[in-house]
Amino acid sequence: MSKTTIRDVAKRAGVGVGTVSRVLNNSPAVSETTRGKVQSAIEALNFSPSLAARRLSRGKTMAIGVIVPFFTNPSVVRRLQGIVSVLSVSKYDLVLFDIEKVNQRDSFLRTIPQRKMADGLLLVSLTPTDADVEQFSLANVPTVLVDAYHPALNHVRVDNIAGGYQATKYLIELGHHKIGYISDYLDDPFNSPVRDRFTGYKQALAEAGIEFRAEYHCEDRHGRFQAQQMTHNLLTLPDPPTAIFAYSDTQAIGVIEAAQELGLSVPDDLSVIGFDNIEAAEYLHITTIRQALFESGVQGAELLLSLMQTPTSEPQEILLPTELIARHTTTQYINGTF
Amino acid sequence: MSKTTIRDVAKRAGVGVGTVSRVLNNSPAVSETTRGKVQSAIEALNFSPSLAARRLSRGKTMAIGVIVPFFTNPSVVRRLQGIVSVLSVSKYDLVLFDIEKVNQRDSFLRTIPQRKMADGLLLVSLTPTDADVEQFSLANVPTVLVDAYHPALNHVRVDNIAGGYQATKYLIELGHHKIGYISDYLDDPFNSPVRDRFTGYKQALAEAGIEFRAEYHCEDRHGRFQAQQMTHNLLTLPDPPTAIFAYSDTQAIGVIEAAQELGLSVPDDLSVIGFDNIEAAEYLHITTIRQALFESGVQGAELLLSLMQTPTSEPQEILLPTELIARHTTTQYINGTF
DNA sequence: CTGAAAGCGCTAACAA
DNA sequence: TTGTTAGCGCTTTCAG
Predict the structure, then answer these.
(1) How do strand A243-246 and strand A217-219 relate by DSSP bridges?
(2) How many A/B residue pairs have CB atoms within 8 Å?
(3) How far is CA B260 from the centre of its chain?
(4) How far is A20 from chain B (nearest CA, A)?
(5) What pLDDT digit, counting tens, does each position of A95-105 carry?
(6) What pTM did the predictor assign?
(7) Are B51 and A2 in contact (CB < 8 Å)?
(8) Above pLDDT 70, what percent of chain A?
(9) Which domains does chain B have, with CATH numbers?
């Protein structure tokens, strides 16, 4: 029976409940003798305080809410691992919300803050709307975005425009002119990185004087199979691309599979570059743009923790670097007309 | 301000707090008119009830604790994904505890149940001690083990002895006699699958009349790099194995890397079989023993949910099947003396 | 069907 | 230092 309360302890130790509470909270204002008595009463009764009661009376939940979309996505998982690594040694519990459906997202983003379900919020790969942000500030719960951006909120992210540029530029430097872009839905308001990388892609193209070809850009739901489909279409075009930039490594895997299916060799017939540098990218030797996934989680969690200690008026911004990792899925384009 | 309480609502609606509470909990004992008044007061005030208060007065947390070891382990993540998929559509919050250190484990397993931090507990890949189990039943919180076993607790798992046997048998059928086993620490009391698979390995060997060779078995901390190390040692033995059974796919990847480093071809010079069928195993075409990782999480969570509804006296047991998936890292052993 | 009031177990302010 | 007491915001009898 965990039905023992602070009152039982007080009675047994022959003190008041206040004193027991003080001992529980390591208040210095307790004499060693009293503390001793209380401690042994606690031991004897195998007592431990009720979280619920403590939360109610303190008005704090001692929990941090982590909201992720599509928990099956490897890059999201990796970020979460970073978050977990810092939260698990903190005094906060981590309560995890997975958002798979659009309507879930709305209701969650609205209710979580105002129900005071958590003392702090971490949104991973989820760009909130202005309305959401208003809810957050109304509820006055510190929030940090990981891999997402909003001018009014603390965030840690990478420069996705630069990353997209970097990837495309590399392909161009290898001699490619016909470069496809396989992406997630561009108009998803909750996913700004897709748009940013696309912007970087077009910038690199423009800078090199290569005209953007609409038929070289495909978008669909995120996923390996969808990417495979899209690539199949791209590759069976009358004038197919010689290189493909995939929005994510997961998609790059689909791209490679599609090429193999068509009997094309990667990288000889098709160069492929991904984004994220998930573990699978290493195993499969995929050229990619590395972003510090795990680290982003760590930094986000640490930022949140510090903000919960000492709030700042201005939203904090942490920008992490991206880095090109050249592996075996990209190569020089040898023009057939040599 | 989320400072609006049930009392504000009651006042505005001109009713008592009890009535508001009834509306909040969809009690049928409220007239439609009253309900209407209360509803609009709630809307007007943008009120939502405090979780903490509700938890305290109801004595339930509406949360399920999920305890995982080494959240970086892909198979653990996959199981968790299964758990999340069912919990995220339930009315329970999921609070996640990651246990990386031994002492953390002890304190967690002890305090979580008795502090009533959760209405139910899911232990993933963590075999509790008898003392732990006693705590659980004392605290009277429903618990289910996923990928772990204890006679007194509900659990969902696979038959790891059979799985280990299956893997080894397959290698033997391919003509291999010199079969190494790369594993995690065998004497970790919290990880029974390592021992079980090892048992299956030895059974298959014995059955085929192959003598167990101590030097063909290596153990170290779980991980790709450790596996790589161990394999290096195995492969540079005077009389090296021609096939290796790795305790996990993660380790199988390390095995393959070690082979490649030594200029050995997989599967021509060395057959490798893993266990789990994580995603990377598919990408890398690793022969493996599939166990339904995601599914185990789903089943575990569902079992827990049902147990929380209607407890059973006997511990429930769900046994999931394992299945051999032959891919490209195993092949017939061609004896050099042909 | 509805209101009043008594907790749920703890913390914190106030006295002593 | 320590005990007492008034909440924290909701649920749940118990009357009416």
Answers:
(1) unpaired
(2) 113
(3) 31
(4) 16
(5) 999 998 877 78
(6) 0.94
(7) no
(8) 98
(9) 6-57 (1.10.260.40), 63-157+294-309 (3.40.50.2300), 160-292 (3.40.50.2300)
